[in-house]
Amino acid sequence: MSIAEHLPKQYDPRDAQERWYPVWVDRGYFRADPSRDATPYTIVIPPPNVTGALHLGHALNNTLQDVLIRWRRMQGFDTLWMPGTDHAGIATQAVVEKRLFTEERKTRHDIGREALVQRIWAWKDEYEARILGQLRLMGCSCDWSRTRFTLDEGCSRAVRHTFFNLFQAGKIFRGKRLVNWDTQLRTAVADDEIEYKDTEGLLWTIRYPVTGSESEALLVSTTRPETMLGDTAVAVHPEDDRYQHLIGKTVTLPLLGREIPVIADAILVDPKFGTGCVKVTPAHDPNDYQTGLRHHLPQINLLNPDGTFNENAGPYAGLDRREVRKRVVADLEAQGLLVKTEPYTNRVGYSDRSKTVIEPYLSDQWFVRMGDDPDGSPGFAQQAMDAVTSGRVRIHPERYAKSYLDWLGEKRDWCISRQLWWGHQIPIWYFDGELDALEAALSGAEGVSWAPAEGGGWLVCALDDQLIQGHSDRLGLRRDPDVLDTWFSSALWPHSTLGWPEPTPELKKYYPTSVLSTARDIITLWVARMVIFGQFNMGDVPFRDVYIHSVIQDGDGKRMSKTAGNGIDPVDIIETYGADALRFTLASSATETQDLRMPVERVTDDQGRIATRKAPGQPIEFVPADLAKDLPKEQFVNTSKKFEEGRTFPNKFWNAARFALINLEGYTPGPVSPDELAVEDRWILSLLRRVSAESTADLEHFRFADLARGLRDFTWNEFCDWYVEFIKARLRDDETKAVAQRVLATVLDGLCRLLHPVMPFVTESVWQAMGSVAKARGLPEPTEAAESVCIAPWPSYPDSWNDPEAEFDVAQWQEKVAALRNLRAERDVPRDAKIEPILIAQGRAAEALARGASSIRALVGAGSVSVVPSADRPAESAVAVLADAEIVLPLAGLIDPKAEIAKLSKSRADLEKQLGGVRSKLGNASFVARAPAEVVQQQRARLAELEAQLAAVSSRLAELGG
RNA sequence: GGGCGAUUAGCUCAGCGGCGAGAGCGCCUGCCUUACACGCAGGACGUCGGGGGUUCGAAUCCCUCAUCGCCCA
Which positions does UniProt annotate for ATP binding (predicted)? Predict the structure, then answer.
C-alpha cells in the first residue's frame, strides 16, 4: 500500500486550510520585497470598514483580488496585496453610540469625547481582528506584515500632509453652506449618504396677507410648514399676470409678523404648479438657498444642531422640529390662516446611518474645491475626468466609466468636515487677533500656514500639533473640533499605505498600483477621490485598472443585508463547504452583469429547527421554528445551494489526484520524445496547452467566470471523464506504464497550477502529495517541482503541443463511445454483457477509429470492436447512424423489431425535418448569393451528410420491413 | 424625471449576427464498474419577456411596450 491510498476518499477542506495557510505565511510567500529585482504587481485592498464583519460581497471582491495576486505571483511578479481596514467615521461612531445607548442609556455627550473615542478604539480592535481573520480563512494572500488602518500613525500623517498642502494650494475653504444635517448624530452627511424614500405626508396651504391690505393675500403650499418661520421672501413667476402688481411689495409672515418681500424668480417658480406662489426659506431648502443667493435674501437659520428650534423661531424656540410643526399648524389654523390640508407623497431624505430625516441646515463646513481654477486651468474634478478619458485609468466593465464621468462632471465641491469625534481632527486653529501678532509669532515656522477666514480673523493650519502647541495658549488659538470625512483618508490609501509622504522604497516601486477591485456604489465616493488625491500628492494616478464587480443579491433580487435577514456570512459557507468551494463558486459567478442572485436558505437541522446565532462568530443554536419567528432577522444563519457546485469540484479534483497518485506507484522521471506519446497523450496535452492559454487570457481581461468554467470543464469533462479512462489499461501494463505516468504527472501538475489561484487549498494538498511521489515531472524533460504551488511558475506550454490530428481522433472515439453507450442504455443491455459492436466507416474516420479501437472497447465494456468499411447488418441488431459512420450493435435475443422500427422512424423524421431546413436555405437564391462562401459551403456539406444518414436509416428500415 | 442593467430550461446563469441554443443545480431511469455516490452512465425539459423593424439569416442589431433591480436628480 502506498501513501496515496491512505488519502481520504473525500477531500477535507478544513484539514487543508488549517495545514497550509500557516505554512504559506511562515515561509513568507505573501511578503513583497521592494529590493527584489522583479516587476511589481500591486493591489490595495478596499479597506473594509470596522463597523461589522465581512459579508458575501466582500468575499467576492477579495476572492477575485486573491485570484489576481496569486496568478501574478506565480508569473514571477513581485506581488504586493496591501491589507487593512477603514475607520468609517460616522458609521462606526454610530454603532458604538447605539450600543452605548441601548446598554447604558447614555449619549456621547454624557461620557465625553475621550471616553467615546476610547470605546470606539476597543470596538475597532475587535472587528479588525474578526475581519482580518475572515480574510485569512478565505485564503487571502495579503502581505500581513504591512497591515494598515486609516487612523493609524502613518495614515494620519498622510492625511495631515495632504490637508496642509491643500490648504496652502488654496484648494480648501471654509464657508457657510447648506448641508445635509443628521440631527441625531449631529453631523453633516454627504449627498451619497442619504437615502431618499417616497413618504406619505401632507401638503399645507397657508395664507400670507399682503402688508397693508385688508383682503389681499398670497397662498403658498408646503410639506414642511414649520420652515415658514425662516421665510425671507415669497416668490412668484415674473410673467404671471395674477401677481404682477405685487412684485416689490411685502407680505406679512404669519405668526412672527415679519414683513418679507414678494420677489419674481423664473427658476424657482413654476406658475402652473399650485397657486404659483412659493415661500422662500434660504437656510432650510437647497432650491431656496440658491434663490436667496440670487436675490440677496437674508438666511435665517432656525435649527439647533440637535433638531430643536433656536431663538430665531421666536415663541417656538427650544422645541423639537416635530413639535414645532404641530404647533405651527395648530396656531395657523386658530388664526384662520390655514387654507387647506391635503395628502401628499413626497421624497424625504433619510440618513443612511441614523435613519432619521435629514434636515437641510446652514452651517460652517470645510470643502475641497473641485471646480476649475479662476484662470480656467483644470481643477480636481476635471483632472480626474482626464485620467479616465485619456486611458491612464481604465475602468472595467467600460460602462461604469460613464457614471464616473457624469458625477465628476458636476464638479461639486466636496464637503469634508464631519461633526464627529471619531476620525482625523481638522488641523485648523482659529485666531481672532491681528495679522501682526500672528506673523510675529509664527513667521518663518516650517509647516504652519495661515489665511484670512471668511467672517474675519485668521485660519491657521499646522502640519503637526507640536508646531503650534507653544503658540496656542499665548495667541488664544481655538482648534476646530470637527473631523474629516472618512473618504478623505481612504482617498490617500494607495499611497499612504506605501509610506507617503516619506519617499520609501515601497512608494517608489509599488506606486501606481496595478488594479483596484471594488463595488460600483463607491466609484464616486472612493475611486474618483483616490484619483484626485493620487494625482495631487503623487503626480500620477493611483492605479491602472479599476475592476468593478457585481453586487450580490438574494434569490428575489433584494440586496443582501443583515437587517433584512438575507445576508450570508462567508465563514458559514467556509465551515459547511470549505474555502475552495466558496472561492470557486464566487469566481464562477463573477460575470459582467451588474447584479448576481444568490438564492438564500435558512440553515436548519434534521428536526427542522432553525439555526441562529447572537452575533457573527458566536456559536450556533438551533431553535424551533415557532420560536424563531420572533427573533431579530439578523440572527438567522443563512446559506445557499449555489455553493454545492463549489463543493463537488474540489472533491472531484481531489479524487482525480488520488487516482493519479495511486497509479504513480513506481514512477520514474525521464524524458519523453514526441513519438513515444499515445494519441490520447497528444490529445490531452493539446487541450492542456489550450486551456492554459485561455486561462491566462481570461485573467488578463478579468473574466473570472470564464476562467473557472474553462478549468472546471477541462478537468472534469476531458481529463477525468476521458483521459483517465483512456490510460487505465496502459497504467496496468509495465511496457506502457512509464510514458502514461509521465504524461499523467505533467497534466496533474499543470492543473494544480492553473487551479491554484481559484482553489489554493486543494491544489496545495495535491501538490505536496505529488511531491513525495513525483517531485521531478514535466515534458519533454522533467524538472524539479517548486516546494509550494504558491510559488510554482504559472504554466505556459509550447505551441507545438497543439495537435489537431490527435483532437480529431479522440473526438471520433468520444462520439462513437457516446453512441454505443446510448444504444446500450436504450436497449437495456445488462452491464456485464460483453457486446461486440461493428463500426462501419471509411477514410479518415475509419483510420481514427482503428487507432482507438481498444480504447473504445474499454470505455463501452465491449468484448471486441471491429472497424470495417462496410458490413452486412445482422438481423437482430441495434443501429445508430452518425454523420460519418454507422454503428451496428448485434444483440441476439435483445431486440424488439417493433421498437427498432419506431426508433428508426423517429430518427428518419428528425433527419427529414433537418433536411427540409437546409434545403430551403440552399434553395433561397439570395442566401446563396449573399451569405459568405464558407457559410454556404457548410450548408452544402451538411446537406450531403444528412442525405447519407437518411439513406442509411431508410435502408435499415427497409431491412426490418418498416 | 435622467442614466445603467436585467428579462434564455423549474432555479442560478453562459451564449451577444451564421451549423441543430448550452452549463451547473434540480428532475427521471439504471448503476456502490477497486479515483470519486460531493460519484458513473443514459434521459426529459426552452414559440431565448410581448410586439414591430433591419438582414440572405436575429436569442444576438434597432425601435417600442411590459416587468424587475441599481444609480443619479
Answer: 562
CA-to-C1' span, A629 to B13 (A) = 33
Decide if A86 contacts A47 (C-beta within 8 A).
yes
Taken in order A88, A405, A359, A419, the sign of the CA dihedral is positive
A365 CB closer than 7 A to any strand B atom: no
Span A641-679, pLDDT tens digits: 889 888 999 999 999 999 999 999 899 999 999 999 999
A270 CA from B64 C1′ (Å): 32
Work out the pLDDT band at A5, boundaries 50, 70, 90: low
Nearest protein residue to the C1' atom of B29, measured from CA? A825
Question: What's the CA–C1' distance between A801 and B46, in Å?
Answer: 39
**A63 with A135, same domain?**
yes
Q: Looking at the 3D structure of chain A, how many domains does it have?
A: 6
From start to end of A406-558, where are the E strands? 414-415, 417-418, 428-431, 448-452, 458-462, 478-479, 483-484, 513-519, 543-549, 551-554
- The answer on A234 and A135 residing in a single domain is no
The verdict on A716 and A605 lying in the same domain is no
Nearest protein residue by Cα to C1' of nucleotide B24:
A645
Instruction: List the domain range (segments joined by +) for residue A621.
Output: 570-577+595-638
Q: Is residue A953 part of a domain?
A: yes
Cell of A456: 474675519
Per-residue buried b or exposed e for A887-905, using 16+ beta carbons within 10 Å of the residue's own CB: bbbbbeebbeeeebeebbe
Q: How far apart are CA A871 and CA A576, in angstroms?
A: 57
Distance CA A404, CA A520 (A): 10
A204 lies in the same domain as A327: yes
Query: Rounded to a whole number, what is the distance in angstroms from the first to the last CA of chain A?
Result: 58
Which tens digits make up the pLDDT trace of A819-854? 999 998 888 888 888 899 999 999 999 999 999 999
- Residue with nearest Cα to nucleotide B39 C1': A652
Specify the nucleotide whose C1' lies closest to residue A935 (CA). Answer: B18
Q: What is the mean pLDDT of residues A924-953?
A: 87
A:3-22 Cβ neighbours of strand B under 7 Å: 9-11
Backbone angles phi, psi at A158, to 5 degrees: -65, -40
Q: Which of A30, A28, A59 is nearest to A46 (CA)?
A: A59
Q: What is the complex's ipTM, to 2 decimals? A: 0.95
Answer yes or no: do A693 and A811 share one domain. Answer: no
How far is residue A181's CA from residue A419's CA, in Å, rounded to a whole number? 10
A368's grid cell = 475641497
pLDDT at position A347 is 73
A633 is in an annotated binding site: no
For chain A, the residue count is: 962
Phi and psi torsions of A335, nearest 5° = -90, 5
Residue pair A68/A74 in contact (Cβ under 8 Å)? The answer is no
What burial class does residue A786 get, using C-beta atoms within 10 Å of its C-beta: 0-12 exposed, 13-18 middle, 19+ buried? middle
